[in-house]
Amino acid sequence: MILQNIKMALISIKSAKLRSFLTMLGIIIGVFAVLVMIAVGDGVKSQVSGQVSGLGTNLLTILSGQTSGSTAKNGQQQKTTGGFNFAGSVGASTLTQADVASLDKINHVTEVAPYNLISSAVVYDQLSTNTPYIFGTTANYSSIRDLKYDNGAFFTNQDNASSRKVAIIGADTKQNLFGSTDAIGKQISIKGQLFTIVGVTKKSDTGTGFGPGSDDVVYIPINTANVVTGSNQIFRIQAQVDKPQDIDSAQQAIKDQLKKNHGGQEDFSVLTQKDLLTTFNTILDLLTTFVVAIASISLLVGGIGIMNIMLVTVSERTREIGIRKAIGATSGNILSQFLIEAVILSIAGGLLGLGLSYLAGLVIKKVAGITPIFSVKALILAIGVSLFVGVVFGVAPAVKAARKRPIQALKSL
Amino acid sequence: MQKNNKNSVIYMKSLGKRYDDEAGVLDALKDVDLQINEGDFVAIMGPSGSGKSTLMNIIGLLDKPTSGVFLLDDVDIATLSPKKLAGLRRDKIGFVFQSFNLLPRLNVSQNVELPMVYARKSKSFRKKKTEEVLRKVGLLDKAKHKSNRMSGGQVQRVAIARALTNDPSLILADEPTGNLDTKTGTEIMNLLKDLNKQGVTIVVVTHNPEIGEYANRIVWVRDGLLHNKRLAQ
After folding, report:
1. Cα separation of A325 and B89, whole Å?
2. What number is the average pLDDT over the span A101-119?
3. A44 and A170, same domain (yes or no)
4. Residue numbers of the domain that contains B197
5. Which of A88, A172, A178, A165 is nearest to A127 (CA)?
6. Considering the domain boundaries, does residue A86 fall inside one?
7. A61 to A67, B132, B183: CA distances (angstroms)
8. Cα separation of A390 and A157, whole Å?
9. Distance between CA atoms of A11 and A222, rounded to whole angstroms?
């Protein structure tokens, strides 16, 4: 009987193709939107965690502002919601050159490198332009980040001390600016100043993406950067700890030292790579949830669309219901027929949405360089949700159909 | 009227149907006694508003009487649930309507199969039976045609084939020739007559006296009352 009902439903869906498609449209869009959002969110998360774990577990990042967790205020442990203080990371940095110097003396800390980000285009020969991340940093940044080179080497302490205009470029930047020709010794222009390329880093295996770890980068000495930008703020400090198991004690020691430097104010954060990841995931989860919630509204609208069309369909097919009842269909037969029709419409919509979102994933991968992840969970969710929508919004029309009395139904038309 | 010893398909005793609503009280049928036996060909005739449609609906189990007794194949239908009634309609009655008989989205054999689908007959049985009844009405070659591409006479033949599929106790036809030209109408009535000769009980509801001539018995309905008239057997 179910099988027959499915067959009937397919016949009536096929006999009104355009209307069936329009009915499904809401579900298609809803499932599509929800899936793409989830997939992109998951994709970004896995990419970032891949990059972060690629950075090593013995790195600490010190940044201006408070990021998360519990903050000591008025001597009390005050819980914050694990959120992120955007203002702290956007406003003027509280980190100074003195902080960098003081960290060098802390136990277990082997290397300390401050860095700034400079926003500028990079131009070669007035022809090719590129906008990589430009880092102003110190010579030991290379060993902290364990950079490898295709050609040349990182700049030296001497280069930094004399504010020489030298630059090391990432593999992608090199490809973008120079193609396959050699880059060493060539000059690139940053903020109108010419820099001589002394090194090209190897392509990292964590792929392209966000933040430090990307291959679209340029490194210049921090002193040179300060001259060029006219500012001597420090955006972040990276500290390397000798052994991963000492990371917690080093983290605490750095906190204490910086608090002393800053007159007792904890206007900075010391984060392990794991903390960074957690912070990032918190933000991303929040954003994803928010966007998915909005996209879910279209699923609701899609469900209402199915209900509307099915209600109209039931009225139009009153005569059919009458004939079916006259030749022996029970109310239950009619109910399941219309319910199954609604469910098939919405599941078909869900599957189409799924297919579309997969295609969109391929496009996003190509265009944005993010690899969306379609998990089995998302797939089950898509089908489950559309099944649910079909049943919930199919019940009212199906009940209406089943309640039609055969005489009235036969008299119509 | 005493229930006689013949196999009665329809047995009605003092049957009445009263509509009682805000428009007032209306007795559509009053004190109806009627027996239709196996193998009968009965025409129920009367002008519109006479109550013949009400009688047809009650015979077809689409409506229930408000008083009296109605036995269909010796089953008292008064106490049956809507689900049981649907089952009886499916198994005991074959409907043929005046128009819009078939489901236009389905092809001929799908239409014919439908009562057997509701009766949960097996696929192989449905196929065999569909062929059998389509052969009976001479439309086996049209099995895969869509009903909306067929003539009125053909549609009516398919409807008759569909009515036969569950081997019903009677075929109930409501103005079966109402939408057909005279020649096609005659063909349909001859088909019904043939089926009757093969033993199928047939009840035709009509206002057309010519149709009545095919029956071996005419039941006149006027103002909700029944007048029996037995013709030559």
Report:
1. 8
2. 87
3. no
4. 8-230
5. A178
6. no
7. 12, 85, 97
8. 68
9. 72
Residue A286 sits in the same domain as residue A256: no
DSSP class of residue A155 equals P
Residue closest to A58 by CA, chosen among A108, A20, A96, A21: A108
CA dist., res. A250 & res. A263, Å (int): 20
Q: Residue A74 is which amino acid? A: N
Q: Which of A204, A239, A266 is the last residue of a domain?
A: A266
Give the tens place of pLDDT for each residue, A354-406. 999 989 888 888 887 778 888 888 888 888 888 898 899 999 999 999 988 88
Same domain, A252 and A287: no
Tokens representing B94 are 């074959």
Residue B1 within a domain: no
Q: CATH number for the domain including B165? A: 3.40.50.300
User: CB B82 to CB A326 under 8 A?
Assistant: no
Which amino acid is located at B72 in the chain?
Answer: L
Q: How much is the pLDDT for A265?
A: 83
The A-side interface with B (CB below 8 A) comprises 1, 4, 11-12, 15, 319-320, 323-333, 406-407, 410, 413
* Helices (H), ranges, chain B: 52-59, 82-92, 108-118, 123-136, 152-164, 182-197, 209-212
A26-53 tens-digit pLDDT:
889 888 988 888 888 888 888 777 776 6
Whether B89 and A410 lie within 8 Å, measured CB to CB: no
Q: Are A328 and B57 in contact (CB < 8 Å)? A: no
**E-strand spans in A67-119?**
70-73, 76-79, 109-118
Distance from the Cα of residue B29 to its chain's centroid: 19
Q: To the nearest 10°, the Cα dihedral for B26, B32, B38, B43?
A: -60
- Looking at chain A, how many residues does it have? 413
Asked if residue B94 belongs to a domain, the reply is yes
**What's the Cα-to-Cα distance from A229 to each of A98, A153, A221, B3, rounded to whole Å?**
20, 24, 12, 113
Measured in degrees and rounded to the nearest 5, phi and psi for residue B81 equal -75, 160
In contact, A97 and A232? CB cutoff 8 Å? yes
pLDDT tens digits for range A285-314? 888 888 888 878 888 888 888 898 889 888
Query: Is A85 part of any domain?
Result: no
Inter-chain CB proximity B120 and A12 less than 8 Å: no
Distances from the Cα of B46 to the Cαs of A47, B70, B205, B227, in angstroms? 83, 21, 9, 10
d(CA B119, CA A1) in angstroms, rounded, equals: 9
Distance (Å, rounded) from C-alpha B27 to C-alpha B128? Answer: 46
Total domains in chain B come to 1
How would DSSP label each residue in B84-144?
A: HHHHHHHHHEEEE-SS--S-TTSBHHHHHHHHHHHTT--HHHHHHHHHHHHHHTT-GGGTT
**Token digits for A187?**
């000059």
Q: Which of A233, A266, A299 is the last residue of a domain?
A: A266
Q: Report in angstroms the alpha-carbon separations of A27 from A33, A135, A297, A379, A392.
A: 10, 46, 10, 14, 13
Q: Which residues contact B55 (CB under 8 A, 6 or more apart)?
A: B29, B32, B44, B205, B221
Q: Are strands A109-118 and A268-272 parallel, antiparallel or unpaired?
A: unpaired
Tokens of A339: 């319910």
Mutation site for B-interface testing, chosen from A327, A331, A404, A412 by largest number of B Cβ within 10 Å: A327
CA distance, residue A306 to nearest chain B CA (Å): 21
The answer to whether the CB atoms of A331 and B62 lie below 8 A apart is no
- Whether B119 is covered by a domain: the verdict is yes
pTM of whole model > 0.80? no
